[in-house]
Design goal:
Helices cover 32% and strands 26% of the residues. By secondary structure, it is α/β, with parallel strands linked by helices. The chain has two domains: 174 residues, FAD/NAD(P)-binding domain, CATH 3.50.50.60; 160 residues, 2-Layer Sandwich (D-Amino Acid Oxidase, Chain A, domain 2). The strands form three sheets. Strands 1, 2, 8, 9, 10, 11, 17 and 18 form an eight-stranded mixed sheet that branches. A seven-stranded mixed sheet has the order 6-5-13-14-15-12-16, sandwiched between helices. Strands 3-7-4 form a three-stranded antiparallel sheet, with no helix packed on it. A hairpin with a 4-residue loop joins β9 and β10.
Length: 343
């Protein structure tokens, strides 16, 4: 059996950030990843990095920056906000993964790729029936985390689905809101350099996910050609139940750090690792752990409203209040979101 000081399960943004930070401190780190090294980062993702972590990456990594967002009310009234600072930095998810892997390896971490972790013995501190031993274990293995399951923790997630349309350009990010159509969710369009990502998702969509997906595709087919589109779906885990369990630490989606309101995954994953192993621990905790309580209360409130069939009353209110909403979004998004850098 090979034994290591620190074993990290999963080579996503959380795992690779943790690997880099711990290796920089001189700890012996092994990253265990089910994909081959050349495929690390190739996963379903809109490829948007928020201002929270946009400054930690070199500018050359970004395909484009989004300075304009259009929100659409249930009756499709368009409310556009703009900013000199970018709302999002758009990246290729594969290129991001490869960049972060290279940074972790250059810092001294090791990689065991093409190795899926199927079994964990938390008492014996071993993986896959004694194949790998550890002193400390870090779970960064996503929404379906094997480590989280081994700890007996259930998970809650929402499904995001998307199409990537090649050879297609657009000048702004679009978000569509409707309580009756999408429940606690939204449709979206993310513009990249020479392609766009169209999709939807939410924590409690009123429609079955198949109906939500079909509606989204039919809606956007009026404007864009889907004939060459590639489809994918993935979960975002938001059920945070703590992240330290003795010698085991849960990060990213494995820890339920996904943002219930915005659907953010990349920045949340990076910050969860920086919170544990970086230098701005308390500052980051205030930004990604404490708000989760408020988000969960919002979801509970929505579900109560849903049982009373109130969402059908909220759409007309949203349409009539569009002007107020735009002013609020302009002030809050521009003044808060674009200046929300943590690192």
């Amino acid at each position: 059996m090979e034994k290591h000081e620190v074993v990290i399960v999963g080579a996503g943004p959380a795992g690779l950030t943790a690997a880099k930070r711990l290796a920089e401190k001189g700890e012996e780190v092994l990253i265990v990843e089910k994909e081959k090294d050349k495929d690390i980062g190739n996963k379903v993702c809109a490829g948007a990095i928020s201002p929270k972590t946009i400054n930690i990456f070199p500018e050359k990594l970004f395909e484009t920056f989004t300075h304009k967002i259009s929100f659409f009310t249930p009756s499709l009234k368009e409310l556009t906000v703009e900013s000199e600072k970018p709302f999002m930095g758009m990246v290729s998810r594969l290129e991001l993964g490869q960049y972060m892997l290279d940074e972790a390896l250059k810092s001294g971490a090791s990689l065991k790729d093409n190795c899926e972790v199927k079994k964990i013995d938390v008492k014996e501190k071993t993986l896959n029936g004694g194949e790998i031993g550890y002193e400390k274990l870090i779970a960064a293995d996503g929404t379906t985390s094997v480590v989280r399951k081994a700890l007996g923790l259930k998970r809650k997630e929402f499904l995001c689905f998307q199409w990537t349309l090649p050879n297609t350009t657009h000048d702004k990010l679009e978000v569509y809101l409707s309580f009756t159509r999408f429940g606690f969710g939204a449709m979206y369009l993310f513009p990249h350099d020479d392609y766009i990502v169209i999709g939807g998702g939410g924590a409690d969509p009123r429609r079955p996910i198949k109906d939500f997906r079909d509606y989204t595709k039919k809606f956007f087919e009026k404007r864009f050609d889907f004939s060459s589109a590639t489809y994918g779906a993935a979960g975002v885990s938001f059920d945070y139940k703590g992240h330290r369990f003795g010698d085991i630490t849960l990060l990213g989606d494995a820890g339920g750090f996904g943002n219930l309101i915005t659907g953010e995954g990349i920045s949340q994953a990076i910050l969860s690792a920086e919170m544990e192993f970086g230098s701005e621990k308390e500052k980051i905790r205030e930004r990604i752990v404490l708000p989760k309580r408020r988000h969960n209360l919002m979801l509970r409130g929505y579900r109560i409203a849903d049982t009373l069939n109130l969402p059908k009353l909220l759409d007309p209110v949203a349409d009539k209040s569009a002007g107020i909403f735009q002013s609020m979004v302009q002030n809050r998004v521009v003044n808060s979101w674009v200046n929300s850098e943590v690192l």
